[in-house]
Task: structure prediction
Amino acid sequence: MLFQEPPAKSKFQAVILTTSLALFSRNLFMHSVSSQSVLIRFKITSLILLLLFLMLPIVIGSLLYGFYAHDIAWLKNAGICAVACVFLKVLALMLGERLKCSLCMSAPLGNLGRAKHRSAQSFCGSYRVVVSTSILFKGKFRCPYCGEMTGMRVRERSGHRNSR
Result:
């Protein structure tokens, strides 16, 4: 026996001790992504969606200032940024629709228009921004459709398929 449990004085302490050992000895996420390429696509799509979320107010502000100051340079820059926003939006839609939650098989970074889970959170009316920031900064996300946590790590494969 490599690890011996200290004797517990009560049944409650024994339950707390075994629960804490179980939590720290295994991963806390039940679900994970299927491959390294899916993991990279989740991170790239999240980065694109956050860039899009940050660029949209910049485009609107540049347009308003360009109209107010009658400055053609600001209007040209706003037009270039608007074209970049459209390109990023199309790219995010193409990538985001293919990425699926491992439990409910819905696209957490896509625009499905389905009913959200009761614990789903939004920021400025967007559930995708919350999922994107969670993927990039926490390394996990809660699916807005089923409410389950998914870790941004590759699922461990059992070796029974390769042993044939």
Remarks:
- The chain has one domain: 29-154.
- Residues 29-154 form one domain.
- Strands lie at 31-33, 140-142, 149-154.
- The chain has four helices and three strands.
